[in-house]
Amino acid sequence: MSEPQAPGTAKEFEDKLIEISLALPKRLRQCAQYVAANQDRIAVSTVAEMAEGAGVQPSAFMRFCQIMGFSGFSEMQRLFRESYVGGWPDYTTRLDHLREKGGESAAGLVAEFVEAGRASLENLLKTVNPQELDAAVSILAKAEMIHIMGLRRSFPVASYLAYAFEKMNVPAILHDTVGKLDNRNAVRSGDAVLAVTFSPYSDETVEFITAARARDIPVVALTDTTVSQLRKLGAMLISVSEVDFGAFRSLSATLCIAITLAVAVGTKK
Amino acid sequence: MSEPQAPGTAKEFEDKLIEISLALPKRLRQCAQYVAANQDRIAVSTVAEMAEGAGVQPSAFMRFCQIMGFSGFSEMQRLFRESYVGGWPDYTTRLDHLREKGGESAAGLVAEFVEAGRASLENLLKTVNPQELDAAVSILAKAEMIHIMGLRRSFPVASYLAYAFEKMNVPAILHDTVGKLDNRNAVRSGDAVLAVTFSPYSDETVEFITAARARDIPVVALTDTTVSQLRKLGAMLISVSEVDFGAFRSLSATLCIAITLAVAVGTKK
DNA sequence: AACAAAATGGAATTTATATTCCAGACCGTT
DNA sequence: AACGGTCTGGAATATAAATTCCATTTTGTT
User: Fold this and answer.
1) Of A179, A175, A181, whose CA–CA distance to A146 is shortest?
2) What pTM does this model have?
3) Which of A127, B91, B208, B237 places its Cα 20 to 30 Å from the Cα of B179?
4) Domain B125-268: CATH class, spelled out
5) What's the CATH number for B10-84?
6) In chain A, which residues have their Cβ closer than 8 Å to the Cβ of B122?
7) Is A234 left (phi over 0), alpha (psi -120 to 50) or beta?
């Protein structure tokens, strides 16, 4: 009855998972992916919960367990319950542990960046200004077309926004300045500009904003401080301060605001 | 029916435990002691197992749970199971609700996304694999040139990497596929490919990786799951699982790994 | 387009587990 | 030692979960 190879350790389990997942039908692959990403949940969940998480029927999850070499879910769960010795350390313990590795391994760096990101996010919650945000959303929701601008370190954010708007069926263009063809004249009255820019502000972005304001096009600017020269230009500012680690800026908080804007505008349309 | 004070956190649970254990009959005291010494087992054990461990009958253990303020063992267990998985709420269903109450302030949305980002980051600490990471760093550090590829939702990450490498003076090219000029032949032996791709994988990226592997160029792939078809291609996988709601993915964890890679490679060069 | 094989969803069944109940044991008091 | 109360063990019951089964759908092949 019992398959020749039922994994006996977490390591064997992972290997087997990778091995079988190369050729697996849709639903079973969903199971494999969910399990891979949530191994720790197996010990404390029911089949029904795991199945729901993976987006499949319990019976499908059951079949997955059997393909993995177990007689059923219970047997698979037993493996994880047993290897659950003393639980996993909590966030801070884990952080310290990784930090110790500092020089030897890149894992030490991960700890620092995770911490910087987390601090940025928490800080964001404290400092976000709901009125400003709502005002920005309503400006963008009214626009017939949103022109997104952000270069250098802001470019990832700008492209993220472009992707999110597209997914939400909000008309938007990413001005990527390819070939230095600044499609400035694509901006028409009734449109709005969404600029992402951190100090030092790139000239292109500042000029783009200036040109838009000169024609009374509304501009929302995602930036890093409220005391910004951008204010002079008459842009609606949304400021986010990120916690840096070394010379590097985690974009966690900025992306958070970005996706919020996108979703809020998308649902309001 | 429910006692006025049922502990809601592990801390409250401990306090309550100490409080009641001052005056407790023999068997119930055994329960209290066993529980205090084996808190972590509650999440993964049955009443029968806990009772046996404490050296009492299941019914006695049941009574203990009730004295602690829970309706029964199941309710007490829920507390520990939930705190174990570290609250990774079901965002998929939450988004559905989000759309319904669309009109509300965007500030509420921010909180949701901050929470998603935070969960992603904490989960990253749990699942990061230092060996894999170091292996990836050493592959990239050896490369004469790093070719970065990532489209659609992965493009923000790819462009972030390009920026970071540039700042660290690491030779790198972002393959942005402008004009569909896939500069595939720019990849030379001695170089390496760094691909960022999440399911569903874009054809261009998969092809790019395939072409590189066919010429024995090492490939590091930043992806969302360990059970990926990319493994077949012989790429070195680094997997990051993000809290994801449909089209809306917080990229916090992915960017964290990205910047780590960039800085680690930069300092190793 | 027709067919066979594989995969899937949902309900039915089985099994495990939690929970309740109560008769009897124990304990402190008079 | 007799009485009230509390505590305890074990079996009986209720509940929830795992597992199986099969009709239906999907997929791949000719």
Assistant:
1) A175
2) 0.84
3) B237
4) alpha beta
5) 1.10.10.10
6) 91, 114, 118
7) left
